């Protein structure tokens, strides 16, 4: 496409993730909640995004919720991203487009081999080697989903959230015990995957992205400072993947 100004939209499990590119350079990003109609969507969009949509600049859309994509097909400028054209070898049929785009964006910006850890509704690990071949990955519930699981499936445990204030490992009350159990288990799990990956690919880039990037970055800096120095924290990998997709189709 010749257009250098465009919008990117990643339809996630819980939110919509928007980005605006000018001269094919990322300028701004926004997150909004989902809506069932374009009119309802326009009511909650930041005015600047709504204005961009009205100018009919290209809108590149990727989605992990196929049913939610139909809404944007009503816009004439919508271009649905086909991740099958992304040149990472070994991508399997059911692999999420968010993981594929983030891996492609991370490898293109920070080099291959590359391990992408995406901390959203799900916490995912996705790695590719120096030949841009998928090595594999893993999926588990993310921070918020683990919190909600305890709250909705137990009778006595309260609803809590992980705060940016440091939580000690050994808690003396129930809310802190839940917070500690989840955050330290997640951090330990991430460390285990990184350690194993670096044994195989010691020169690999390691990138942490997704909605909990800032939260996990703060905890990593305090608990595993030497490992934190090896991690790139970048919440915009999916949009870099979209940019590379657009420039190469």
UniProtKB/TrEMBL annotation:
<protein>
    <recommendedName>
        <fullName>Type III pantothenate kinase</fullName>
        <ecNumber>2.7.1.33</ecNumber>
    </recommendedName>
</protein>
<comment type="function">
    <text>Catalyzes the phosphorylation of pantothenate (Pan), the first step in CoA biosynthesis.</text>
</comment>
<keyword id="KW-0173">Coenzyme A biosynthesis</keyword>
<keyword id="KW-0808">Transferase</keyword>
<comment type="pathway">
    <text>Cofactor biosynthesis; coenzyme A biosynthesis; CoA from (R)-pantothenate: step 1/5.</text>
</comment>
<feature type="binding site">
    <location>
        <begin position="10"/>
        <end position="17"/>
    </location>
    <ligand>
        <name>ATP</name>
    </ligand>
</feature>
<feature type="binding site">
    <location>
        <position position="118"/>
    </location>
    <ligand>
        <name>K(+)</name>
    </ligand>
</feature>
<keyword id="KW-0963">Cytoplasm</keyword>
<dbReference type="Pfam" id="PF03309">
    <property type="entry name" value="Pan_kinase"/>
</dbReference>
<dbReference type="InterPro" id="IPR043129">
    <property type="entry name" value="ATPase_NBD"/>
</dbReference>
<dbReference type="InterPro" id="IPR004619">
    <property type="entry name" value="Type_III_PanK"/>
</dbReference>
<feature type="binding site">
    <location>
        <position position="92"/>
    </location>
    <ligand>
        <name>substrate</name>
    </ligand>
</feature>
<comment type="similarity">
    <text>Belongs to the type III pantothenate kinase family.</text>
</comment>
<keyword id="KW-0067">ATP-binding</keyword>
<feature type="binding site">
    <location>
        <position position="121"/>
    </location>
    <ligand>
        <name>ATP</name>
    </ligand>
</feature>
<dbReference type="GO" id="GO:0004594">
    <property type="term" value="F:pantothenate kinase activity"/>
</dbReference>
<keyword id="KW-0630">Potassium</keyword>
<feature type="binding site">
    <location>
        <position position="174"/>
    </location>
    <ligand>
        <name>substrate</name>
    </ligand>
</feature>
<comment type="subunit">
    <text>Homodimer.</text>
</comment>
<keyword id="KW-0418">Kinase</keyword>
<keyword id="KW-0479">Metal-binding</keyword>
<feature type="binding site">
    <location>
        <begin position="96"/>
        <end position="99"/>
    </location>
    <ligand>
        <name>substrate</name>
    </ligand>
</feature>
<keyword id="KW-0547">Nucleotide-binding</keyword>
<feature type="active site" description="Proton acceptor">
    <location>
        <position position="98"/>
    </location>
</feature>
